[in-house]
Amino acid sequence: MQKAGVRHTKFLVASAKLPRDGTLLFGKTGTALQCDILRTLLYFDIFDYPLRSACLSLPLKNQIMQKDEYYFLKCRPETIVENRREKERRARLLWRIARLMARIVGGFPFVKAIFVSGELSKGVASEHSDIDFLIVAGIHRVWIVRTLCAAFKRVFLFNQKKFFCYNHIVSEHRLEVTERNIYTATEIVTLKPLLNTNLFEKFLQVNSWTKDHLANSSYQNPTVPNRPSGRPIIERIIDFLVPHTALDTIDHWLLKKWRRVWVYRYPSMTPAKRTELFRCTTDISTSYVKDFSARIMGEYEQRLIHYGLASDIATQGQYPEIFKYQPASH
User: Fold this and answer.
1) Cβ(12)–Cβ(186) under 8 Å?
2) Which pLDDT value is given to residue 74?
3) Which one, 38, 116, 207, 310, has the greatest CB density within 10 A?
4) DSSP summary character for residue 328
5) Strand ranges across the sheet with 51-52
6) Cβ atoms < 10 Å from Cβ of 31
7) Does residue 273 lie in a domain region?
8) Which range marks the domain in which residue 99 is found?
9) What gap in Å lies between CA 121 and CA 139, rounded to an integer?
10) How many other C-beta atoms can be found within 10 angstroms of the C-beta atom of residue 205?
11) By 3-state DSSP, what share of the chain in percent is helix, strand and coil, each rounded to 5?
12) Top-confidence residue, 2 or 126
């Protein structure tokens, strides 16, 4: 879920819309509302992402610009709007590929759910964008699933991650995301399920802490395939032929093997940083070569300081929890 970047790499966020009926999205009035809107614009601007809103221009006429239905910081060129539209057009093609990949990978043994994350889940795609997936695996099957995904990518996709980047795999009984900030909250509430909406809703419930950051986020149940009551035939055959204890042993052996892979591939990385970016436990596997979360949160902090809003960081302990976001549906 961490995969996004700043400016010339990737970006994470989708359009935030203020209510058209005049209701205050942030639960505040006057100066407090102005500051909340400015914080929203500052965060989204990290990713060159103008926002759609019916009332952003009213309290901040001196700070923002409008082109058509889009709003952005006054210091940014108007071309930012056309850039977003182009990314939306590009995303429509990648969504077709994402659905195809989900149908294929959804037939792998021990795959319980598939969600699109990263840039595409926000309805946009940069020129060199990957299709990022968060995959939910069966209990004690995370590393078997990762290995199957790696084999599929190497054999059938010629080891290219453009259309299949599985950077986050979790076990179905450990769905909680422990890193809690505005970045991870935005990533969670904008996930798009492609397989098993029931498990996706459970994922959102387990991570209900996102409401502390994004109180107005909402989820509209899409029409996507749910996992049938029966398991994939390949999984049933494997379970019939191989004892569960043997599968548990294989999964643990693969975990240790992948740990060695990360050490071999990134020898210059400190053990602490490698552990942070390439999490290897029984219940979770992540592979984030670049620490996007820290970079984005650092960039956001610098913008708050520049606009005189840095006091929020000191008083709230981390980053402003009053940042409210309402994701658009795609």
Assistant:
1) yes
2) 84
3) 116
4) P
5) 51-52, 70-73, 64-67
6) 9
7) yes
8) 91-289
9) 26
10) 9
11) 45, 10, 45
12) 126
Q: What does the block give as tokens for 154?
A: 């190497």
With residue 113 as reference, give the H or E element that holds it.
strand 111-117
Give the total residue count for the chain. 330
**Rounded mean pLDDT of 241-267?**
96
Token pair recorded at residue 209: 């802490």
Q: How far apart are CA 204 and CA 189, in angstroms?
A: 7
β-sheet bridge partners, residue 285: 169, 280
**88: nearest Cα among 65, 114, 70:** 70
How many distinct structural domains can be found in the chain? 1
Q: Could you tell me where the DSSP H helices lie in 121-166? A: 142-156
pLDDT digits (tens, 9 = 90+) for 56-80: 444 555 677 888 888 888 888 999 9
The C-alpha atoms of residue 278 and residue 286 are separated, in whole angstroms, by 5
Residue of higher predicted confidence among 111 and 319: 111
In a domain, residue 23? The reply is: no
**pLDDT tens digits along 271-317:** 999 998 999 999 999 998 877 888 888 898 888 888 777 654 433 43
What pLDDT is stored for residue 61 in this prediction? Answer: 59
Mean pLDDT for 129-144 is: 97
* Residue 212 DSSP symbol: G
Query: Is 241 part of any domain?
Result: yes
Please check whether residue 277 lies inside any domain of the structure.
yes
> Residue 63: what are its φ and ψ, rounded to 5°?
-110, -25
